């Protein structure tokens, strides 16, 4: 009788233990379902982070593109303003004034000096306050109060002397001004896939001012506010540049110093 009781008690205890273990554990199917749900959640989180990273990258590209566009426009506008006829005896401020190209002379470095002795017809050497670092071959303009004369340097400038390529045909009085000029050209060049590069050329040296240009347009206006294609009449230039696939656009009006 005692043995039967012990066996029955042991059987009941095992069943109770099995019941407790079964209720506390998980089946393989439940584990797989949990893993699938977790995978979906992780995948959604990864996609969300990827989308956020893409938007952030696009914003950074747009910011960089916008900054480059503004800097390029600043350079272009600052040099266009110097395409002045004021120092050139009434000559046209532009050598070329087209819809996608402009060429002109400008004193980019603000290099100027004055005569310390009168410039005499037939003599190539000018005595000046300071001609240091004025390179050979550069264009110059010599101006009095009433007239100006173009010329070119035959040699590198010295402290108190500039040597002209051709002697002056007129006399210029002491204290007449001498200006160093740069030949500047802006134009577009194909880049591929419908894009362009805006090129900047100064005295024959060429560099890319802006890449991935989708549109570059120049419009020229006269004193009456009308569009003109006569370079002699230009007093204002409107610049419009569009860059990048996102279509960043910047437009400005530049008054020419006359």
Automatic annotation (TrEMBL):
Transmembrane intervals: 31-54
Name under which the protein is recorded: Type IV pilus assembly protein PilW
Pfam families per UniProt: N_methyl (PF07963)
Organism expressing this protein natively: Nitrospira defluvii
Keyword field: Membrane, Transmembrane, Transmembrane helix
InterPro entries reported for this sequence: N_methyl_site
């Amino acid at each position: 009788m005692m043995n039967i009781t012990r066996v029955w008690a042991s059987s009941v205890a095992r069943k109770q233990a099995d019941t407790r273990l079964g209720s506390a554990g998980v089946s393989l199917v439940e584990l797989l379902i949990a893993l699938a749900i977790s995978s979906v959640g992780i995948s959604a989180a990864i996609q969300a982070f990827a989308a956020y990273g893409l938007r952030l990258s696009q914003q950074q590209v747009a910011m960089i593109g916008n900054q480059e566009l503004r800097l390029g426009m600043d350079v272009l506008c600052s040099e266009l303003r110097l395409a002045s006829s004021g120092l050139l005896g009434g000559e046209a401020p532009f050598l070329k004034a087209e819809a996608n190209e402009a060429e002109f002379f400008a004193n980019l470095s603000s290099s100027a000096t004055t005569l310390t002795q009168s410039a005499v017809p037939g003599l190539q050497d000018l005595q000046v306050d300071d001609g240091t670092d004025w390179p050979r071959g550069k264009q110059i303009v010599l101006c009095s109060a009433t007239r100006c004369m173009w010329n070119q340097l035959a040699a590198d400038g010295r402290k108190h002397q500039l040597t002209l390529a051709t002697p002056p045909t007129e006399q210029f009085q002491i204290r007449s001004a001498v200006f160093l000029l740069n030949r500047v050209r802006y134009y577009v060049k194909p880049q591929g896939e419908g894009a362009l590069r805006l090129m900047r050329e100064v005295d024959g040296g060429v560099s890319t001012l802006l890449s991935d240009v989708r549109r570059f347009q120049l419009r020229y206006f006269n004193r009456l506010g009308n569009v003109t294609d006569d370079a002699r009449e230009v007093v204002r230039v409107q610049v419009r540049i569009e860059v990048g696939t996102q279509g960043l656009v910047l437009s400005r009006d530049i008054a020419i110093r006359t």
